[in-house]
Amino acid sequence: MLKVRFAVIALLMLTPFGYGFDPDLNWKTLTTKHFDIHFSESNQALASEVSLLAESIHNELTVTLNWKPKSKTQLVITDHTDIANGYASPLPFNRSVLFVHPPKAGNLDFRSWLRSLIVHEYTHVLHLDKAEGIPDNVRSILGRFWLLFPNTFQPSWMIEGYATYLETDFSRAEGRGQSSMFAIMMREELRSGFKSISEVNISSASWPLNARYLYGYYFYHFIEQKFGSEAINQLIENYSDNWFPYLLNSNSEFVLGQQLDSLWLEFEVFLRRELKISSDNSVAIDRKLSTSSGFFKSSLTSGENGEIWFLGNDGYTQSGLYQLKNDELIKLTDINSLGSLDFHSERGLIYAQPEICDEYNIYYDLYRYDLISNTVVRLTECSRYSEARWLADGTGVIALRYSSGKPILDLLTVNGSFIRELHRGDDEVISYIDVSPNGKTVVASVQRPSSSRARLEIFDIEQKSWRALTNENNHAWQAEFVDNSNIIFSAETDAKQFSLNQINIDNNNISRITNSLYSFFEPIYIENSNSVAALSYTANGYDLVTLNTESFNTVSHLYIGIEGVKPDQKEYSSPSIKQSEHNREVNDYSAWDTLSPKYWFPFAVGNENSQEVGIQTSGMDALENHIYSLAFSLEIEKQKPNLFLNYLYDKSVDVLLQNYHDIIDDDDDSTFDLIEQNSEFEFAYHFPISTVLSQWDFEVALSIDSTREYLWFDDDEHLIREFNEVLAGVAINFNSAKNFLRSISINDGRSVRFAFAETGIWDSDFDGKRMLLDWREYFQLHQEHVLALRLFVGSSEQGAKPFQVGGDFSAPFQIRQRTLIDDRIAFRGYPGFSRLLYGRHVRFASVEWRFPIAHVERTWMSPPIGLDEISGRLFYEGARVYGHSQNTLQIYPGENIADKTYYSSGVEILAKFKLFYSLPLDVRFGYAEGLDERIGEKSSYVSFGTSF
């Protein structure tokens, strides 16, 4: 009954809890008519800008979606990361988090990246919050329970596609939908194999990772072209009063006269016509792939002997710094994530990668890779430098960072120390910097509010002035100096491709040097050769391409640059709202304003022994620092109360309080029932020390566990026994285990837990010390093949609670933190309880080979059940238990049971399902054979989750 109860509670408490933001910052709240905007004090000017934008966008989008939220939306402005992103949810209240770091210039089409971000995220808020009819009426009674939000019950491509559709404005050349990158990616999809609707439904780790945005946008565009924009509004409107979720095909049939499955076939035909996909693939210059791993690559740089270095991620291993020389590809070192890279013949390689700073922030820092000693030296700490370039004479570094969304160029020493600030920007976005060989100028891609496109600009370091090199009609980006006068770069063409180009900055003549079916990015000249290296987009991601310059066909002079354009020149201003139109009150942030429960929901669970009914709720504050779950139920027949409370604060404090009854009823009214009452209180305080690739957690915990067993006879209880365990101790956790994009499981690194506890304190029926070491090691054999090893050592003093080995149990729902001392260890092929496997000392070891079987990656439209992948495991395990109780020793007189080692082997098939398009559920089908003749079992089992 306990497992059923907690499973139901966990399922009902599906709330998108996050990681929390630094509570030590001085957080403020700016209140407007429709928003509460939360920000740290250093971002007050940005919060004022957001308030104007948000109110303007609210006025636009509420008309488009025909929906106004019944309460204010919580907007959180955070500068905790150097990654451009944001997210939104209607649960437990309407809320959006905005990362105030702009995307790289040229990556997206916008005049104001902040406005584009708010439009996209607030579309999610309104779309997912919208409800009509029965869901809206029931919500007025039960509150914001997740089952009462019809539009959340859609595949993610429909949700993200709609937001991308509304962010797209062809008249202003804004948004991803009208961008060349989306056209390039979709053309490659059509050439290589258009995904079925069941593939797009599942949001798998296959390329492209943004398929839900890409296919989603184009599908809404197709609907608009075929049926008109009003049809999209009707699809949203009609589904918003859907009291039974997942009726997507019937909604489409009702509004459009066709089901989504059949429309998908027409959708492909439409795209082939729209994007002009033909059988004529003739090109002036074709691409020659130097790599074929796909996925992500960035920041090419070359050496004097023809070497090429780049940062890459192939989906199967940790991101790395790679060298390509003489057609041999070598991984030099692991990196945290992709960033920027530059080479100097004397100084070596300098690269930027993100790292965790002060536990709450993810900032880029600079590192130097010495090609002679093959060592890495960290140059900066929490500096936020996302790009860096050596000065040609090797005397320093020019680096780019952002603070509160504003770009800053700094001059640093070769060791990363700050010398002086070269430029502090405002509303422009600066990216892809490169320094001229004479060290006098910096070329960069600059995206200003005057246009939605990035152009090349030259920054004169001495004069501190900018000069435009290209116009704003098409993106121009990713430039590299060939010499002091010539620059090569990638630029958007009118055919929605990206070609390689060269500009002479003395006379501003630009020539296109490639004319191909394919697009090229991040070009570099390979010294002492007649070739250029670049990245080219493929069906599997980005790959390195080498092009022979002798075959380049200069097409034409494209543009004469504009002289003397000032960096602060603007043609675009954000939509204005009079200050008097909304309240601009600023107060200190208070968690109490959003912490109250926003819903309650009744539930009932039961089995053949008992039935109980209850209510549950959960909640958090806007900054995700306070998170709680609460459930109360009553056993109907015997009127026994059950309580569950879990509270988390700031990733450091964890409190669990629960009281529950398990009843064994023999269904004979003339006899008794056995009742076990458990009351548990756990408090843990965590001291984390985190990096991107590994985490330490030092834990201090107190656990109080009280158990009462009694008989229920003649409507009264008769106590049999009662015992308490009070456990206080410490634990040290280390985790470097990694699960890569294409992994079937954790497949590299280790997880180690050491815990020590004392039970002989206060009113405890156990007296003695307890200790455990749980070491799990993962070795990547090849891509998805993994060798997983585990060693568990547990010991308890005489009088302390013993350990129990056996069973194939698993934990499908992680609704609580693990206890300080885990005293039960799964041992497949042996019973859940055996006296021979119950003792004060345990030694357990397991070896497991995990291998892929199939990547299915399909989800049916209805019912919304998907299968992501299937993998297999072969395992061999052994356990030794000693320190048995005297009762056990008396049962086996004359036997040295302490010296006995038990073994088992078996096989498992793990199927990773996706329920309701997004909810992961792992199902294990296993066969295990315990090799001991006395207590070993041959068992087949089906369970949820994984115990290893």
Polypeptide structure, described:
This protein has 948 residues and is an alpha+beta fold. Helix content is 16%, strand content 42%. The strands form nine sheets. A 16-stranded antiparallel sheet has the order 30-31-32-33-34-35-36-37-38-39-40-44-45-46-47-48. The protein has a six-stranded mixed sheet with strand order 4-5-3-2-1-29, covered by helices on one side. Helix 5 crosses helix 8 (211-227) and helix 8 (211-227) crosses helix 9. The two termini are 24 Å apart.
SSE topology:
Blueprint lengths: L1 H11 L14 E5 L3 E6 L3 H22 L7 E6 L7 E4 L5 E5 L13 H17 L3 H10 L13 H12 L12 H13 L4 H5 L9 H17 L1 H11 L8 H9 L3 H15 L21 E7 L5 E6 L6 E6 L2 E7 L6 E4 L3 E10 L3 E10 L4 E4 L6 E6 L6 E7 L2 E7 L5 E7 L4 E7 L5 E7 L6 E7 L4 E4 L7 E6 L4 E7 L5 E7 L4 E4 L7 E6 L5 E8 L2 E8 L36 E4 L3 H4 L5 E6 L4 E10 L5 E10 L4 E10 L3 E12 L8 E18 L4 E19 L2 E20 L13 E10 L10 E14 L2 E12 L6 E3 L18 E2 L12 E2 L1 E19 L5 E18 L3 H6 L9 E15 L3 E12 L7 E7 L4
Parallel strand pairs: 2-3, 3-5, 41-42
Antiparallel strand pairs: 1-2, 1-29, 4-5, 6-7, 7-8, 8-9, 10-11, 11-12, 12-13, 14-15, 15-16, 16-17, 18-19, 19-20, 20-21, 22-23, 23-24, 24-25, 26-27, 27-28, 30-31, 31-32, 32-33, 33-34, 34-35, 35-36, 36-37, 37-38, 38-39, 39-40, 40-44, 41-43, 44-45, 45-46, 46-47, 47-48
